[in-house]
Design goal:
Elements: H1 2-31, H2 36-48, H3 51-76, H4 84-101, H5 107-136, H6 140-160, E1 184-186, E2 191-192, H7 194-211, H8 213-223, H9 225-230, H10 235-262, H11 273-283, H12 288-312, H13 318-352
Antiparallel strand pairs: 1-2
Helix pairs in contact: 1-12, 1-13, 2-12, 3-7, 3-10, 3-11, 3-12, 4-5, 4-6, 4-10, 4-11, 5-6, 5-10, 7-8, 7-10, 7-12, 8-10, 11-12
């Protein structure tokens, strides 16, 4: 019963943060002379009003979920991988190259090969700043952010020159072969199985974090680095493992986008997905199952913005304002919880005296 209450409070918190964000957005709409009910009605109708629209939500959710899991794994272990966006670009490019250069494999081999290529380069992209952190104490926040630009420019070069599709615009690779595309869940709606991959990944990460020895060690390191080190944990090695798993999830996100949704690489294929994943992980408090729920809400916000602009004349840029507000509410929630914990400790100390 206690566990059910915990989960209920957890999901109510997520709903509360989104509700507060929408209330703030309603105030802004009223100030600019728009009707909030009409705007939000158009948003949800556009995002959820038809089967193709809901499939579009699921297609966006699969990448957001994997990106959120990438951030959650690293944050949980006290190491901050802010390079998911660059690692997703690497994974997408690797999957695309394997998808259009190899044409003689059956689908049951070709699809896993493309996904594994994406995972492998994602691991490399995360291992570089991870090694710099554990070996020479280079701040991973700075190194991962800087490598985002490096990886983006590298993949952009590949898509513009050696692997450019001459029949399309610059920065775009040829489309992957049919054998490199994820199988359908519902063929009539063009719904691929990428959403299953992201949900299964979330369940597996949840089990690792909560029911394995390494998950316990990551949690201890994330809660108190010094205590974990003095307790005998191999902090640097465990953080490196977390960084590698984080990079694998980023690379998988890029590969799933290419094999399950867009079927080619282009320069904007993963723009902002990595940063959205950071916010999703924060909102979910690094809980893998909460990441799935938060990703769905994010996808609704992103997809519904166009409908809101078309029907209610509210600019779609307001969605970015709402997401920025969401960041403030998420940060405020953590700040308030920290203050309450400190106040509780002070009260306990005073009572002990």
């Amino acid at each position: 019963m206690k566990k059910i209450s915990h989960w209920l409070n957890y999901f109510l918190t997520i709903l509360g943060v989104f509700g507060a964000t929408m209330a703030f957005g309603a105030v802004i709409m009223l100030l600019i002379g728009a009707n909030p009910l009409e705007a939000y009605g158009a948003m949800f109708s556009y995002a959820l009003g038809s089967a193709p629209a809901m499939v579009n939500i699921l297609n966006r959710t699969m990448a957001l979920t994997l990106s959120g899991l990438c951030a959650a794994v690293a944050f949980n272990a006290g190491i901050y991988n802010l390079g998911a966006e660059g690692q997703i670009f690497l994974g997408a490019m690797a999957a695309a190259i394997a998808g259009f250069t190899i044409t003689s494999l059956p689908a049951y081999i070709h699809v896993p090969l493309c996904l594994l290529c994406g995972v492998a380069v994602g691991v490399i992209g995360a291992a570089i700043p991870g090694y710099l952190r554990v070996r020479w104490r280079v701040d991973e926040v700075i190194s991962t952010i800087m490598l985002n630009t490096v990886f983006f420019l590298f993949t952009s070069y590949l898509a513009t020159y050696p692997f450019r599709d001459p029949a399309r615009w610059s920065g775009t690779t040829p489309s992957v072969a049919e054998t490199a595309r994820l199988p359908f869940l519902i063929q009539s709606l063009d719904l691929r199985s990428g959403i299953l991959i992201s949900v299964v990944a979330a369940i597996l990460i949840y089990l690792v974090m909560n029911y394995t020895d390494i998950g316990y060690r990551w949690k201890m390191i994330g809660l108190n680095y010094q205590f974990a080190r003095y307790g005998g944990l191999q902090v640097q090695a465990d953080q490196m493992r977390a960084m590698i798993l984080s990079g694998a999830l980023s690379g998988l996100a890029g590969a799933v986008m290419v094999c399950g949704s867009v079927f080619r690489y282009w320069e904007s294929v993963a723009r902002y997905v990595g940063w959205d994943g950071v916010l999703i992980a924060m909102l979910a408090n690094n809980n893998p199952l909460g990441v799935v729920v938060s990703s769905v809400f994010f996808a609704i916000f992103k997809n519904g913005a166009l409908g809101m602009e078309a029907v209610s004349k509210v600019p779609s840029d307001l969605t970015e304002v709402l997401l920025a507000t969401l960041i403030l509410f998420v940060s405020g929630r953590h700040f308030v919880s920290i203050l309450l914990r400190k106040r509780k400790n002070i009260v306990q100390l005073s009572e002990g005296e």
